[in-house]
User: Which sequence fits this backbone?
């Protein structure tokens, strides 16, 4: 067996475990009975441990190093795989096994502690765990590279090639240009469309509309399906098996519509990746940021456009004649772009959303620079959200305790949400140079948009880095100006 | 690590793979998108191969033999595990690897060939594969034990301890007593209740009735769920995760009702097994026959009783007022016990069902005694069904090609279906000596019946053999007389 064949054989094993874990997770999030959790956690712990044992074994490490030292012998695609494998290995290989096990246990325990703390708005009961999680993450990042700012290492975990330097530039631009603009808009945001947004909408009819959207966005039903879950998500085991969930709320119509379209963005990306990468490390979307750019593009650039509602308001009226009778397509457009300074990130609108991310980035950056400690978090949080959006949490549940990410050890993840929206805007302008997006939407030809994205971006899976992809798709490096331009254009029009 | 700990550790790995395979199979049978099959078959083949490699490794074999040679050192439960493991090992260990792989491939290919043959009623196109499957099965049985009739080895695969000698006695008793009785009843079966059975019943209302049944039968929803599939089935990964499916037909009300109750029988058995067996070879129901006895007991002895319909006809009328308005509870009882000589096993009623099994047993026995060849099958089949039920297939699709079992290499499986019904009758009479079953049904207290079965049978999982269980539950060895008595009593009453 050649070294490359050995690598493939080994990957096959890991892929089989991951395939199983993905389907078990899908099941657990969409239908598994409550009491199944005990057996499931035993079984998934076992399968995860097997992956960890393979990937930290001396044999595996030797193989990767040997491949790494002979990269010249291989083609570009395999070299990218080797580099990825080497980096993944380096990220864990220096962590002492007992520390790794302790950390996994800490993360496991912290879930319930965070949930309770959030429920009771009791930051004090979570603070100790949070500090330990932060300390471990700093330590692990330094094991990987003692000469790099730990937060830079973490940022790179979620978005290959991104550092504080680049994120600082991005968020500084938003701070300079967007914060004053948002404050301006918030003053003018007086059409609430409350009776349109929060009327009673039958779940059955909402389901019909979601099914309609799947077809309008040309989702391949033979290679995927839609279900429901508390937090909508998209999971895939291959481009031929991509599953999304949505969430139906009786008294808030936009929950299911925009969850469905958002997840359709993730799902379309995954469905359009070339199957040639299935058995390689280059399968799946390339990064969190690029993935989010696709979900946000479909959700906001398409789904919250005037052209979208001009095209689909008839279907909406057919399903909800009572609720919509005094409204026009333009009202739907405005209602779905209603801007409000809210405290909760996941409920935020397109315009204020990046403010929520900015504050989390500021905090993570200060934490890992040791400028603030976990003791300072609630007040730092509350001051920042007030600074950016002019609102202040009444308690920590609607402040520092609202997100699951930190309790799960995910630092450096949040910035990719805003980055994704900014990527989306830049891609949007590039696309408009080549195809008439508005016309395609009005002609119910979203398939043409899918095809463009497939050719320029989706098909490549993880075989190219986010930076390479942005260059390929937009013919220039990432530049936040498009995002600011897009938001200003759109919201100036809506709010004059 | 002691040998017992090593055994546990090894089993843990196998159980983790089996857990994954079970959930992947559940997904595949209930919702997976069509195009997912390719990736899934690669992944499941890999996971199955891993199990096979573990269970045929020299190391595993040595461990089992050493445990087997020192059984005196262990308690009864572990001794039963060792014996099971030893038998499972012996069944495969002498099969040359290339023959095993060829056989798996043959079975794989035969699925589609059988499907097509059935669709086109073209037995000739399937005959060659069938012959090879039979030859392999005979060969494999002889590898295991060259001094035993191969068919006896196969019968034992599906029902521990059963041989042709015992099945002959069972089926001879049916032939002698039941065949003439069935012919008698068929002559008198003139109330068809066609407009009750085959009216239009909305799927939504049928679903409501199935949900109602789940609660009436005290199904533990925290440890299970119901979905739909083409062929109803029950799968479980532990007593705390037991899932059943049912099948809704718009124009045949009894499909969903009796699929649901039948599967509830399997599911209740699995839910009531002690969790202490989870990590052992003694988890799950003990045999096909005992499992079928539980599904048949709930379906027929409870679900098709007069008391059942006297208790639940009100709910039925509430859901289907139009369809039921000219009928009484007794009509539902009679309609659900309508007897008809049919050609298709899976559509047969409770009374004629064992005739279908008898003929399959006759044929399997003759095949493996080499009294007939695959060339003779269609005519032997047609003659036998005519002899037992007085009907003759027009083509092989409704004759010898109707079942999937043989194309899948399952010989010796069919008899457990009839055996299960016979076990059920014997258990039913034993139960009636201790509790008033009819009263429990009328008081909507099926929970009391569940509890009786849990204490006497379910809790033990596979820790006892079918024969031990029958003795424990009914205080005597299995005797087919109860089955004949039960069917005669019930159908004499219905058909005078």
Assistant:
């Amino acid at each position: 067996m050649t070294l490359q064949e050995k690598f493939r054989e080994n990957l096959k094993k890991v892929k089989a475990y991951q395939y199983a874990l993905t389907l078990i997770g899908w099941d657990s999030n969409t239908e598994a009975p409550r009491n199944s959790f005990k057996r499931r956690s035993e079984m998934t712990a076992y399968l995860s441990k097997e992956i960890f044992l393979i990937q930290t074994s001396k044999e595996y490490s030797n193989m990767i190093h040997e491949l790494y030292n002979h990269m010249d012998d291989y083609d570009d695609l395999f070299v990218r795989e080797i580099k990825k494998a080497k980096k993944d290995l380096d990220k864990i290989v220096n962590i002492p096994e007992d520390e790794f096990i302790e950390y996994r246990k800490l993360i496991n325990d912290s879930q319930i502690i965070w949930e309770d703390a959030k429920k009771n708005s009791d930051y004090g009961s979570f603070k100790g765990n949070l500090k330990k999680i932060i300390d471990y993450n700093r330590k692990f990042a330094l094991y990987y590279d003692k000469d790099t700012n730990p937060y830079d290492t973490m940022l790179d975990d979620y978005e290959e090639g991104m550092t504080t330097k680049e994120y600082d530039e991005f968020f500084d631009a938003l701070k300079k240009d967007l914060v004053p603009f948002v404050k301006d808009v918030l003053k003018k945001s007086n059409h609430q469309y409350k009776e349109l947004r929060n009327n009673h909408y039958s779940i059955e009819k909402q389901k019909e509309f979601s099914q309609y959207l799947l077809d309008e966005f040309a989702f391949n039903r033979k290679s995927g399906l839609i279900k429901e879950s508390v937090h909508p998500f998209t999971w895939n085991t291959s481009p031929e098996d991509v599953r999304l969930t949505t969430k139906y709320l009786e008294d808030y119509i936009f929950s299911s519509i925009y969850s469905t379209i958002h997840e359709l963005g993730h799902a379309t990306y995954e469905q359009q990746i070339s199957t040639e990468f299935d058995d390689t490390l280059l399968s799946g979307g390339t990064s969190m940021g690029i993935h989010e750019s696709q979900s946000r593009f479909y959700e906001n650039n398409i789904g919250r456009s005037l052209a979208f509602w001009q095209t689909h308001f008839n279907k909406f009226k057919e399903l909800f004649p009572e609720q919509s009778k005094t409204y026009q397509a333009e009202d739907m457009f405005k209602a779905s772009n209603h801007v409000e300074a809210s405290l909760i990130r996941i409920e935020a609108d397109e315009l204020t959303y990046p403010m929520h991310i900015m504050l989390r980035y500021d905090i993570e950056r200060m934490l890992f620079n040791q400028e603030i400690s976990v003791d300072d978090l609630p007040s730092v949080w509350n001051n920042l959200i007030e600074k950016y959006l002019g609102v202040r949490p009444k308690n920590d549940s609607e402040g520092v305790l609202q997100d699951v990410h930190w309790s799960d050890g995910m630092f450096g993840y949040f910035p990719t949400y805003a980055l994704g929206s900014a990527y989306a805007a830049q891609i949007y302008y590039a696309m408009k140079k080549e195809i008439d997006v508005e016309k395609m939407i009005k002609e119910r030809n979203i398939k043409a948009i899918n095809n463009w994205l497939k050719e320029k971006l989706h098909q490549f899976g993880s075989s190219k880095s986010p930076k390479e992809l942005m260059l390929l798709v937009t013919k220039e490096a990432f530049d936040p100006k498009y995002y600011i331009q897009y938001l200003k254009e759109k919201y100036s029009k809506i709010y004059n």
Chain A has two domains: 3-146, 147-496. Residues 300 and 350 of chain A are 7 Å apart (CA to CA). The two ends of chain A are 68 Å apart (CA to CA).
